[in-house]
Amino acid sequence: MNIKERLKSPTPKFWKKVVRIGVGIGAVAGAMLLAPITLPALVVTAAGYGVAVGTTALILAKLTKVDVSDIQNMDFSEKLDLKADIEKIEAKRDLTEHEQNLKDELNRNILS
Predict the structure, then answer these.
(1) How far apart are CA 56 and CA 77, in angstroms?
(2) Which of 18, 21, 25, 109 fits as disulfide partner to 54, beta carbons 3.0 to 4.6 Å?
(3) Domain boundaries of the chain, sorted by first residue
């Protein structure tokens, strides 16, 4: 699976939260860096690190994917969320082989 496919694959529930946190940290830090007032050097340095941390968290979270073996350990609501994510992807484009395998495994697990 290449990076482009990984970025488009469904993201696990925990990592979706990491995406939100990363975006929040990056947005606050970016606002501090772009503030039209002069800020102390310590605040500017901390904001620079905040942008780096937020960006890194976002990239790592987006590159994390759900594996077929993970489906066995999910509760029913997580399976339904993943099924909905895959249906959204399928509405936009053709599924990759990995996504099709996820969909098939979900259908087997939800129906059983």
Answers:
(1) 29
(2) 25
(3) 10-65, 67-112
